[in-house]
Q: What sequence folds into this?
């Protein structure tokens, strides 16, 4: 059992204790749980299938060569660029990150990938930022934030080398 799953179970148990102590009615809680479960499980299944297809399309040797430990800082740059072009939400982005992990990507590259995806996601830029805030604001934001994934990956690289 992974530490993430154990942490999630502990948080859920704590929330259950809080709900019981506050004597909340169970019907809305159960209904919301079922709604969220019904919405997220199909997305997760599709995301995992998509990640499986990505794993087949991009050979493991390619990923480990360009995103592995041996690539050094270049892996952070490549991962940062890859994070920008992932046109999806967290279900897909984290599934792709899981494929990268299994294919030999380094932790600093994964940090850079996920940071880049979170800061620059192309789908948000095209759907929200340009239409709502304009190209001028987008240029300003990109210029001021372009270094963030590289710094995050560099910090992760320093921690990996220390520990």
A:
């Amino acid at each position: 059992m992974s530490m993430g799953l154990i942490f999630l179970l502990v948080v859920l148990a704590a929330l259950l204790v809080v709900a019981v102590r506050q004597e909340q009615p169970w019907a809305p809680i159960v209904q919301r749980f079922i709604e969220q479960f019904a919405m997220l499980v199909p997305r997760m299944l599709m995301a995992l299938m998509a990640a499986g297809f990505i794993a087949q399309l991009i050979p493991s040797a390619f990923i480990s060569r360009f995103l592995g430990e041996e690539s050094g800082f270049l892996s952070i740059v490549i991962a940062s660029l890859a994070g920008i072009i992932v046109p999806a939400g967290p279900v897909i982005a984290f599934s792709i990150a899981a494929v990268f992990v299994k294919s030999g990507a380094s932790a600093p590259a994964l940090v850079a990938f996920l940071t880049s995806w979170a800061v620059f996601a192309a789908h948000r830029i095209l759907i929200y930022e340009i239409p709502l805030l304009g190209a001028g604001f987008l240029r300003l934001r990109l210029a001021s934030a372009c270094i963030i994934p590289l710094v995050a990956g560099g910090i992760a690289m320093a921690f990996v080398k220390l520990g």
Observations:
- The CA atoms of residues 108 and 156 lie 5 Å apart.
- The chain has a mean pLDDT of 88.
- Residues 26-57 form the longest helix (32 residues).
- DSSP finds nine helices and no strands in the chain.
